[in-house]
Design a protein that fits this description.
Strand order of the largest sheet: 1-3-2
Helix content: 40-55%
Low-confidence stretches: none
Radius of gyration: 20 Å
Number of strands: 3
Shape: rod-shaped
Distance between the termini: 68 Å
Number of helices: 3
């Protein structure tokens, strides 16, 4: 099933301009029927899942404390 850019943006609460930018950058594959771009629902769901997984991994990385260096000694 194919969705329009507007429908896709509404489904994921993302601005239409951002969805269009992803299409033009080649991140999202879409077909142009002469009037509008149509996005495959299955393909976009996979892209969105990957994007969410990357966001989660970045958040985990940001919240992981930096281990103390064992070579640093307190000389006070």
């Amino acid at each position: 099933m194919y969705k329009t850019v507007t429908d896709t943006a509404k489904d994921i609460s993302m601005p239409e301009q951002q969805v269009m930018r992803y299409i033009l950058e080649g991140r999202i594959h879409a077909v142009h029927d002469g009037e509008q771009f149509l996005i495959s629902s299955d393909q976009f769901e996979r892209f969105h899942e990957q994007l969410e997984r990357i966001k989660e991994e970045i958040e985990i990385w940001k919240n992981t404390p930096i281990p103390e260096d064992i070579d640093i000694k307190d000389e006070d």
